[in-house]
Amino acid sequence: MPEANTGSMQEFLDQFSQTLPKNEVAVMYADQAGWHASKTLRIPDNVILLALPAYSPELNPVERIWLYLKERYLSHRLHDDYDAIVDAACTAWNRLTAEAGRITSLCSYSWLEKLLAVTVKT
After folding, report:
1. By the 8 A CB rule, do 68 and 34 touch?
2. Could you tell me if 88 and 65 are in contact, meaning their C-beta atoms sit under 8 angstroms apart?
3. pLDDT of 118
4. Which residues contact 53 (CB under 8 A, 6 or more apart)?
């Protein structure tokens, strides 16, 4: 999405909701960004949003991806304009995804692996 706002979140939820099989409900964790909890957000009936506690980046695996990207590809650089920033972010993402297993290693928490193992069994 080109913007992080309530409209983008609404579109994501609506499209995601349509991918779920009938009679299935998905539970998603969301940080406390304003667009995740906006009063105008209409959460589909087959999606449940649970808020992560404030100031708990260790519970949100994507935070480690952002840190990795910033440390290796995005920090201490000046860009001429918005398009250059988007290009740099896309290049960084493509380099990250080309590293076999890197996203898994960044997002693997022992507590998450245990949770997934229990979830898969039930």
Report:
1. no
2. no
3. 65
4. 59
Whether residue 113 is found in the same domain as residue 78: yes
Measured CA distances, 22 to 19, 29, 46, 47, 71 (Å): 9, 21, 9, 12, 42
Instruction: Show the domain range for 79.
Output: 61-122
Could you tell me which of 29, 25, 35 has the C-alpha nearest to residue 4? Answer: 35
Alpha helices in 20-98 (DSSP H): 62-69, 82-98
**How far, in Å, CA of 68 to CA of 18, rounded?**
32
Grouped pLDDT means (10 residues each) for the chain, 122 residues: 89 96 90 88 94 80 88 91 94 93 84 66 52
Domain match, 67 and 121 both: yes
Strand residue runs (E) in 18-93: 26-30, 47-51
Rounded-to-integer distance, Cα 6 and Cα 50, Å: 16
CB neighbour list of residue 99: distance below 8 Å, 6 or more residues apart: none
For the entire predicted model, the pTM comes to 0.61
